[in-house]
Amino acid sequence: MADVMTNGKVLDRETTINEITKLEWDMFSAVKNVGGPAGCQSQRKTFEIMRKAQHQMWGDDTLETYKMDLLTATLNGDNLMTYKYGYMMKSTFPQEYEQIKDQLPEIGSARRKLVTWLTEQHNEWTKEAAAKYPKLCAWGRPLDEQAANGSTWASVENYFYCELLTYSTATLQWCKRDFEECLEAGENPVLGVLTYIAECYGYTKLEDIEAALQKVTPDNLV
After folding, report:
1. C-alpha span between 43 and 61 (Å, rounded)
2. How far apart are CA 19 and CA 48, in angstroms?
3. Measured between alpha carbons, how far is residue 144 from residues 80, 127, 135, 154, 213 in Å?
4. Residue 84, CB-side half-sphere exposure with 13 Å CA sphere
5. 131 Cα distance to chain centroid
6. Euclidean distance between CA atoms 97 and 159, whole angstroms
7. Structure confidence at residue 196 (pLDDT)
8. Low-confidence spans in the chain with pLDDT less than 70
């Protein structure tokens, strides 16, 4: 799927993902935090790996439509990353969220219904991946809100849900199509995301990084 035809033009998937990630970084690095920039806002390489990994689960048309979301937001002076982290605060910092919720775009019922469906399906795939690669998944965020247990460390569920809240209805509809195709094919796109990350860190398959993680602890992980 290197070169595809979409919307009447030839599109290179890798180029589109690079363009998306650049737009996301511009927004992410501009997010204003209480107390100054967060440490992760200076870690562009890690950001790019994780975002490009995330985009592996989406089809070409979905990526193209999401890129238009980002471009439109940029032209309108909207920072989708600021909105995403704002929505996440409802779970991680509920008191602070009450102070900023009126500054966030409202989400209509149709969009929220799509986001809920996508998140529930993503949760199933995430838990399936964690059952197969427990060490690898244990190094990431808590899988869901129950596992987060009121922590300020956002869960995979909260992160994914709140990111989708920033997508347009058109993009969410393409996302739903992608997930439906995965369900029909019996594929788990979360495994594709994890595989991309593993390859970026020099592992050829998930079994290799899972085995390597058996030998490390949070104290000696680099």
Report:
1. 29
2. 11
3. 22, 9, 16, 9, 22
4. 21
5. 20
6. 15
7. 93
8. 1-11, 33-43, 141-153, 216-222
The HSE-up count of residue 184 (CA atoms within 13 Å, CB side) is: 6
What is the distance between the alpha carbons of residues 189 and 87, in angstroms, rounded to a whole number?
24
**Rounded-to-integer distance, Cα 210 and Cα 71, Å:** 38
Output the CA torsion 154→158→161→166 (10° steps): -40
Q: Quick one: which of 25, 11, 1, 3 has its CA closest to 64?
A: 11
Q: What is the dihedral of CA 193, 5, 181, 53, to 10 degrees?
A: 10
**Which of left, alpha, beta for 116 (phi over 0: left; psi -120 to 50: alpha)?**
alpha
CA dist 146 and 149 (Å) reads 5
Domain positions in the chain are 3-213
Neighbours of 24 (CB within 10 A): 21
Count the neighbouring beta carbons within 10 Å of the beta carbon of residue 7. 10
Q: What is the pLDDT of residues 112-149, one digit of tens each?
A: 999 999 999 999 999 999 999 988 887 776 665 454 45
Instruction: List helix spans (H) across the chain.
Output: 13-28, 44-54, 60-76, 80-92, 94-100, 109-132, 134-138, 145-148, 156-164, 169-185, 189-200, 206-213
Task: Please tell me the predicted confidence (pLDDT) of residue 115.
Answer: 98
